[in-house]
Amino acid sequence: MAGLLAIAASGAAAARAVDLAWRRMESSATGRARWIWATDDVRSPQPARFTASRSVALDADVPGARARIFVDRAYRLFLDGRLVGAGGMRPGDAMDSFALPALARGVHTMAIEAGSPTGIGGILFALDLDGAGRNAVVSDSSWKVGGRPVFVWGDPPMYPWGFPHPRR
Questions:
Q1: Cα–Cα distance for residue pair 166/69, rounded to 1 Å
Q2: Per the domain annotation, does 161 fall within a domain?
Q3: Helices (H), the chain
Q4: How far is CA 75 from CA 19, 62, 64, in A?
Q5: What CATH number should be reported for the domain holding residue 111?
Q6: What is the mean pLDDT of each run of 10 residues along the chain (168 residues)?
Q7: Which residue among 32, 36, 76, 135 is buried most deeply as judged by most CB within 10 Å?
Q8: Within 10 Å of residue 97's Cβ, how many Cβ atoms?
Q9: pTM here?
Q10: Residue 27 confidence (pLDDT)
Q11: Residue 160 is assigned to a structural domain of this protein
Protein backbone atom coordinates (compact mmCIF):
# COMPACT_ATOMS: atom_id res chain seq x y z
CA MET A 1 0.00 0.00 0.00
CA ALA A 2 2.82 2.39 0.88
CA GLY A 3 4.37 1.66 -2.51
CA LEU A 4 1.14 2.62 -4.30
CA LEU A 5 0.96 5.85 -2.32
CA ALA A 6 4.54 6.66 -3.23
CA ILE A 7 3.85 6.01 -6.92
CA ALA A 8 0.69 8.15 -6.83
CA ALA A 9 2.53 11.00 -5.07
CA SER A 10 5.37 10.79 -7.57
CA GLY A 11 2.94 10.87 -10.50
CA ALA A 12 1.09 13.86 -9.03
CA ALA A 13 4.37 15.74 -8.53
CA ALA A 14 5.42 15.05 -12.12
CA ALA A 15 2.04 16.24 -13.46
CA ARG A 16 2.30 19.40 -11.33
CA ALA A 17 5.83 20.11 -12.66
CA VAL A 18 4.65 19.77 -16.27
CA ASP A 19 1.64 21.99 -15.58
CA LEU A 20 3.85 24.67 -14.01
CA ALA A 21 6.27 24.53 -16.95
CA TRP A 22 3.40 25.04 -19.44
CA ARG A 23 1.97 27.91 -17.40
CA ARG A 24 5.38 29.61 -17.29
CA MET A 25 5.77 29.22 -21.07
CA GLU A 26 2.27 30.57 -21.74
CA SER A 27 2.90 33.55 -19.47
CA SER A 28 6.24 34.34 -21.07
CA ALA A 29 6.42 37.92 -22.29
CA THR A 30 8.03 36.74 -25.53
CA GLY A 31 5.82 33.82 -26.57
CA ARG A 32 7.69 31.53 -28.97
CA ALA A 33 10.87 33.65 -29.11
CA ARG A 34 14.10 31.68 -28.92
CA TRP A 35 17.51 32.61 -27.56
CA ILE A 36 19.77 33.40 -30.54
CA TRP A 37 23.40 34.45 -31.06
CA ALA A 38 25.90 34.74 -33.91
CA THR A 39 27.67 31.48 -33.13
CA ASP A 40 27.97 28.62 -30.70
CA ASP A 41 31.80 28.76 -30.83
CA VAL A 42 32.69 29.46 -27.21
CA ARG A 43 36.01 27.59 -27.06
CA SER A 44 38.19 30.70 -27.05
CA PRO A 45 36.44 33.60 -25.32
CA GLN A 46 37.15 36.91 -27.05
CA PRO A 47 35.18 40.12 -27.61
CA ALA A 48 32.47 39.88 -30.28
CA ARG A 49 30.24 42.38 -32.06
CA PHE A 50 27.74 41.55 -34.80
CA THR A 51 24.37 42.56 -36.20
CA ALA A 52 21.43 40.15 -36.36
CA SER A 53 18.63 41.26 -38.68
CA ARG A 54 15.30 40.24 -40.05
CA SER A 55 12.91 41.77 -42.58
CA VAL A 56 9.19 41.90 -41.90
CA ALA A 57 6.59 42.30 -44.66
CA LEU A 58 3.42 44.08 -43.55
CA ASP A 59 0.24 43.65 -45.61
CA ALA A 60 -1.37 46.70 -44.01
CA ASP A 61 -0.43 49.83 -42.08
CA VAL A 62 0.25 49.20 -38.38
CA PRO A 63 -0.72 52.10 -36.11
CA GLY A 64 1.81 51.21 -33.41
CA ALA A 65 4.18 48.55 -32.16
CA ARG A 66 6.14 47.59 -29.05
CA ALA A 67 9.50 45.83 -29.02
CA ARG A 68 10.77 43.84 -26.03
CA ILE A 69 14.42 42.89 -25.97
CA PHE A 70 17.01 41.25 -23.75
CA VAL A 71 20.64 41.04 -24.86
CA ASP A 72 23.46 39.70 -22.71
CA ARG A 73 25.70 41.89 -22.71
CA ALA A 74 25.04 44.98 -24.84
CA TYR A 75 22.85 46.00 -27.79
CA ARG A 76 21.53 48.69 -30.07
CA LEU A 77 18.12 48.12 -31.67
CA PHE A 78 17.35 49.57 -35.11
CA LEU A 79 14.16 49.79 -37.17
CA ASP A 80 14.76 50.58 -40.85
CA GLY A 81 18.23 51.89 -40.01
CA ARG A 82 17.02 54.26 -37.26
CA LEU A 83 18.15 53.72 -33.68
CA VAL A 84 15.21 52.71 -31.47
CA GLY A 85 17.07 52.04 -28.24
CA ALA A 86 20.18 50.68 -26.63
CA GLY A 87 21.17 48.97 -23.43
CA GLY A 88 22.76 45.97 -21.86
CA MET A 89 21.80 43.21 -19.50
CA ARG A 90 23.09 40.43 -17.35
CA PRO A 91 21.27 37.27 -16.33
CA GLY A 92 18.44 38.14 -13.94
CA ASP A 93 17.83 41.61 -15.39
CA ALA A 94 14.48 42.63 -16.84
CA MET A 95 13.90 43.15 -20.56
CA ASP A 96 13.83 46.59 -22.14
CA SER A 97 10.63 47.69 -23.87
CA PHE A 98 10.29 50.34 -26.58
CA ALA A 99 7.24 51.89 -28.21
CA LEU A 100 7.70 52.11 -31.98
CA PRO A 101 6.05 54.54 -34.38
CA ALA A 102 3.32 53.60 -36.85
CA LEU A 103 4.61 51.33 -39.61
CA ALA A 104 3.45 51.73 -43.20
CA ARG A 105 2.52 48.75 -45.32
CA GLY A 106 5.60 47.19 -46.91
CA VAL A 107 8.92 45.68 -45.84
CA HIS A 108 10.68 46.81 -42.67
CA THR A 109 14.00 45.65 -41.24
CA MET A 110 14.68 45.00 -37.57
CA ALA A 111 18.38 44.89 -36.67
CA ILE A 112 20.06 44.18 -33.35
CA GLU A 113 23.71 45.10 -33.01
CA ALA A 114 24.94 42.90 -30.17
CA GLY A 115 28.22 42.62 -28.35
CA SER A 116 29.89 40.71 -25.58
CA PRO A 117 33.36 41.07 -24.03
CA THR A 118 33.69 37.27 -23.98
CA GLY A 119 31.91 36.52 -27.27
CA ILE A 120 29.27 34.56 -25.35
CA GLY A 121 25.73 35.90 -24.98
CA GLY A 122 22.13 35.69 -25.98
CA ILE A 123 19.39 37.72 -27.67
CA LEU A 124 15.69 37.36 -26.92
CA PHE A 125 13.33 39.61 -28.92
CA ALA A 126 9.59 39.99 -29.39
CA LEU A 127 7.62 42.58 -31.36
CA ASP A 128 3.93 43.30 -30.84
CA LEU A 129 2.12 44.83 -33.81
CA ASP A 130 -1.17 46.65 -33.23
CA GLY A 131 -3.77 44.76 -35.23
CA ALA A 132 -1.44 41.83 -35.97
CA GLY A 133 -1.03 40.54 -32.43
CA ARG A 134 1.34 39.98 -29.58
CA ASN A 135 4.74 38.49 -30.38
CA ALA A 136 4.09 38.82 -34.12
CA VAL A 137 7.86 38.86 -34.77
CA VAL A 138 10.26 37.00 -32.48
CA SER A 139 13.90 35.99 -32.33
CA ASP A 140 14.24 32.62 -34.05
CA SER A 141 16.14 30.87 -36.83
CA SER A 142 14.79 33.30 -39.47
CA TRP A 143 17.22 36.02 -38.29
CA LYS A 144 20.54 36.41 -40.13
CA VAL A 145 24.07 37.51 -39.26
CA GLY A 146 26.15 38.42 -42.29
CA GLY A 147 23.67 36.63 -44.56
CA ARG A 148 23.90 33.38 -42.59
CA PRO A 149 21.29 32.00 -40.16
CA VAL A 150 21.83 32.81 -36.50
CA PHE A 151 22.70 30.11 -33.99
CA VAL A 152 19.68 29.18 -31.84
CA TRP A 153 20.60 28.41 -28.24
CA GLY A 154 17.04 27.24 -27.44
CA ASP A 155 13.70 28.13 -25.91
CA PRO A 156 13.26 30.00 -22.63
CA PRO A 157 13.76 29.24 -19.87
CA MET A 158 17.41 28.68 -20.55
CA TYR A 159 20.39 28.93 -18.24
CA PRO A 160 21.59 31.52 -17.36
CA TRP A 161 18.80 33.84 -18.57
CA GLY A 162 15.57 32.07 -17.62
CA PHE A 163 12.35 33.92 -18.60
CA PRO A 164 13.16 37.66 -18.64
CA HIS A 165 10.15 39.94 -18.20
CA PRO A 166 9.72 43.59 -19.24
CA ARG A 167 10.62 46.29 -16.75
CA ARG A 168 7.67 47.45 -14.73
A1: 8
A2: no
A3: 2-26
A4: 34, 25, 22
A5: 2.60.120.260
A6: 55 52 56 95 88 97 96 97 96 95 97 96 96 93 97 93 82
A7: 36
A8: 17
A9: 0.83
A10: 47
A11: no
Give 102's contacts (C-beta < 8 A, 6+ positions apart). 61, 62, 63, 64
Tally of residues, the chain: 168
Measured in degrees and rounded to the nearest 5, phi and psi for residue 167 equal -65, 145
* Spatial distance between the Cα atoms of 15 and 40, rounded to a whole number of angstroms: 34
Domain count, the chain: 1
Full domain range(s) for residue 47: 2-154
* List of E strands, 5-156: 35-37, 48-58, 65-72, 74-79, 82-88, 96-100, 106-116, 122-129, 133-138, 144-145, 148-149, 151-154
The three-point CA angle 63-34-48 to 5° equals: 100
